[in-house]
Structure formats: structure tokens, C-alpha cells
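Progress note, project year one: complex with uracil.
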Amino acid sequence: MLSSCGYCSRSEARLWARGGRIKVRGQVVKAADEKFLPEEVTVDGEPLESPEGILILFHKPAGWVCSHDEREGQRVFDLLPARWLKRNPPVTTVGRLDKDATGALIVTDQGELVHRLTSPKHHVPKLYEVTVDRDLDPKLVAIFASGELRLEDEPKPCLPGKLELLSAREARLEIVEGKYHQVKRMFASQGWTVTRLHRSRFGEFELGDLPVGQWRKLAL
Ligand code: URA
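Model obtained:
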């Protein structure tokens, strides 16, 4: 239990038990191979963190990558409790946001949920706020909604997206898939460069007033 929650390795758990750091219902437990209910276990007097699993909505700041590979830059995981990456399975992001993009990012250790929220079959809506480099043309609304917009190297056209123009260079775009750099490529295909990209909603999960760099736990 301790090792799957990221506290220590299985062999360390034995040492921790022998050292009296683990209690169940307030009583020290010395044998690491007994089975207990997670909610009854404490380590150094603290209850186990999220034994049922991790699911959070994180407000990703600009400048951090969603990759697990440190060579790609500062990782969003380094903004989260270190123990979450040591869990088994470790946490991962549900889809990715580009390094320069901000906004709603779901982080979880629930593989089934990752699949459900990222599978193209499930058409989970994602809402983006976009700023571009020159004045928008209202014709983009119909182009993005057409279901016929083709991106380079993609076998299928983009499913219809809902574009709402907010000001000369700002818009909201809702899409139900997550092709690589999709929002930037949709605008680029029509001659616009996205200069700011922010995701305000992922499926049912709305960022609201969650401050940048903070997270909120979601019900599993
Ligand atoms: N579309 C992009 O171009 N980038 C993102 O990060 C998300 C969607």
C-alpha cells in the first residue's frame, strides 16, 4: 500500500514498519505483510495520501512541459508533490498542453480515465481561448465548423469545431479531438499564428478561478 502510494519501496516499507513509523487504528504495526484498510493506516502520524487514487485539475503555467522526459524542459510534474510520480502507477497528464500554453490540465493515476478522456471516439469537448497575430476573419467560423478542414499529414479532416470571435484578434474555440498541436495548426492552415493559447475547460472540468500553478482535487 505504501509503495503504491509513492511513500517508499516495498523493502523500505518493511524497515519503516520495524521502525514503528506505521500505525493502524493508532497501534504500531511491525509486520509489513499484513493487510489493512487504507483509511486506517498512518505513516509518521499522518493518514495515507489518496490511497484510492489521484485525480486533479491543474492550472498549467506557461513554460512547463507535460512530458515525463526532463530533456524536454521543466516538467509540470515538478510543480506537483514528488510522491505522485513515485506512485504505482505514477501520475500522468490526460493529453498534453504545449509548453507555451496555459490552462486546464488533468493529472491522474487512473489509466482507464486517461483512455476515456483522450480516446477520439469519446468526443470530449475542450475549450480554448486563443489570441492571434492579425485580425480574424469571420469566414473562419464556417471553415472550422465544416468538418472538412484538413491538416497536413493527417489522414482525416478535423471534426467540426465551434469558433466564437470575441474581439479583432481573440476567439474561443471548442474542439472534440486532440490532434498534435491541433488548435495552432487549425489557425496556421488558414494563415494565422496563435500567439496565446489557454484551455479554460476540459470535458466537464472548468478551470474557473483556480489560480495559475494551483490544483483542485476532483472526485474519482
Ligand atoms: N492545441 C494546440 O495547438 N496546443 C495545445 O497545447 C492544445 C491544443
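The chain is about 15% helix and 25% strand.
The two ends are 18 Å apart (CA to CA).
No further modelling is planned for this target in the current period.
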